[in-house]
Design brief:
The protein is mostly helical. It is built from 4 helices and no strands. It is rod-shaped and about 175 Å long. Keywords: Coiled coil.
């Protein structure tokens, strides 16, 4: 009888040590846990360990119940303590399950938030890409306008120089024609004391033709310059 009692006491002490150790470990794990994948895996492993411990302790409880008829006075108190410890383990298991559920919910929320942020980044990138394309297009168009404007201003400067030269030619021809006209008029009057002849009239007529050509060229250059100014917006 004493041997059996010692054996049972040894078993109960071992169980009590396992239960107490499990309770301390569960408490430390509960307060130090972090809602991440590693912590979740640790809780799942501890969950399995507690289930195994409960199965083992249930087996021991059954053995104690079978020996209860012989050691009722000694085992009743121990069995009650064991049942209390089992209840404590069950409560701890429930708490761990709740904590595991909370962590899984937190992970789901974090994942959802990350997915939403990723979608926002994609939308932002597409928007920025469109803006970059639009800016490149606008820059290209502005460059084309600048290049075209530069060409137009070069053409304008060239036309202005040509027009100035043509106007000078026209003015010179008109001055020469004026002198020839005076000589021709004196020749036609027949009473001039100056040395004039038909050649002066022929010269005047030729100069008038040159003046007409010069004026036509001048007019053409003016029209071209006016059209160019319209393109430039001047």
């Amino acid at each position: 009888m004493a041997t059996n009692t010692a054996k049972i006491n040894w078993k109960l002490s071992l169980i009590a040590g396992l239960v107490a150790g499990g309770a301390l470990g569960a408490g430390a794990q509960y307060y130090n846990n972090v809602p991440d994948n590693q912590a979740c895996k640790a809780l799942q492993a501890e969950h399995q360990t507690l289930l195994a411990e409960l199965d083992h302790e249930k087996t021991l409880a059954k053995q104690l119940t079978e020996e209860k008829t012989q050691l009722m006075s000694d085992s009743t108190q121990k069995l009650t303590e064991l049942n209390q410890q089992l209840d404590t383990q069950k409560k701890q298991l429930v708490a761990l399950n709740q904590q595991l559920e909370t962590i899984q919910k937190q992970q789901a929320q974090v994942k959802k938030k990350q997915q939403e942020q990723a979608k926002k980044l994609v939308v932002t990138k597409k928007k920025l890409d469109k803006e970059v394309v639009a800016l490149k297009t606008q820059t290209k168009q502005q460059k084309e306008v600048i290049d075209k404007s530069s060409q137009l201003f070069e053409q304008k400067a060239k036309l202005q120089n040509e027009l100035a030269a043509a106007q000078k030619v026209t003015a010179d021809l008109k001055a020469q024609s004026k002198k020839s006209k005076k000589a021709c008029d004196e020749f036609k009057s027949g009473d001039s004391w100056n040395w004039v002849s038909q050649k002066d009239c022929d010269k005047y007529n030729a100069q008038q033709a040159e003046v007409s050509k010069a004026e036509a060229k001048e007019m053409k250059l003016k029209q071209a310059l006016a059209e160019l100014n319209k393109k430039i917006g001047a």
